[in-house]
Write a structure and sequence with these properties.
Layout lengths: L2 H27 L16 H21 L3 H7 L8 H19 L6 E4 L3 H25 L1 H4 L2 H8 L21 H11 L3 E3 H29 L1 H9 L9
Antiparallel strand pairs: 1-2
Helix pairs in contact: 1-4, 1-7, 2-4, 2-9, 5-8, 8-9
Length: about 240
């Protein structure tokens, strides 16, 4: 691959993933201008719906976890250039998220449904805050490196990647994983919690905590005692002092 092709590939991967993420956020928000939402697919029998939904989340979880591991990166970069590795991860993340939006099956019934206008406004505000909090947290660490843009840009200019540096900034002084905290807020705060939405929230929450276990293991391997000391001082999700 030429450096120009890698750069274009990375931009397209980022754009596709960004579209998928916005689609997913709107999809679970059940906005009126959206033609489909987490509750509006064609109904199928309960067992079929449950099985399909579980497969969709499993695809998303396996893609996120397996492609993020060092052993997978080692073999992947024998096939594609190192600079395109993160963009490939981002591309497949977007595809996995898109599959959920396309094929998620509704489950009948509701856990709660808030009709009070003030209550609906507060829950909707919390939902928007969660996603904004998660997005902002990506910029605190390095949004462009996280989504592969830094790698393709530096490769285009023939510049080496900077060494890994650990710094505690803003939200990361209070919680170790503010990106995931924002996602949890976004998927749980809703005026209408259908059983379909509930299944998506529960399964994604379970995956997040399982995935963080492996991510923290990799961080300890990379950063050593620096990260172990950080773990002792700062909670994983709850922004309260230890």
């Amino acid at each position: 691959m030429s450096k120009s092709i890698i750069f274009i590939y990375g931009i397209l991967a980022y754009t596709g993933a960004l579209i998928a993420q916005v689609w997913f956020i709107l999809y679970i928000g059940e906005w009126e201008f959206m033609e489909t939402s987490v509750n509006t697919q064609y109904p199928v029998p309960l067992i079929s719906a449950f099985s399909i939904n579980l497969i969709l989340v499993s695809i998303f979880a396996l893609q996120h976890s397996v492609m993020a591991r060092s052993f997978f990166k080692h073999y992947l970069t024998k096939i594609i250039p190192q600079a395109a590795e993160r963009s490939t991860y981002v591309l497949f993340s977007g595809l996995a998220l898109g599959l959920i939006c396309l094929y998620w099956q509704p489950l009948e019934g509701f856990l709660w449904q808030v009709d009070n206008e003030i209550g609906k406004a507060l829950l909707t505000a919390g939902y928007l805050f969660g996603w904004a909090f998660s997005l902002f947290s990506t910029f605190i660490i390095n949004h462009f490196e996280l989504f592969g843009l830094q790698q393709i840009y530096r490769n285009l200019l023939n510049k080496p990647e900077p060494s890994v540096a650990f710094k505690e900034r803003l939200f990361y002084k209070w919680v170790r994983h503010p990106i995931q905290l924002g996602i949890l807020i976004g998927v749980w705060l809703t005026p209408t919690m259908s059983y379909s939405h509930l299944m998506l929230s529960v399964t994604l929450s379970i995956y997040i905590f399982i995935g963080l276990k492996y991510e923290e293991r990799d961080l300890i391997y990379t950063l050593g005692n620096t990260y172990k000391e950080y773990q002792k001082r700062v909670r994983m999700m709850l922004p309260f002092p230890k």
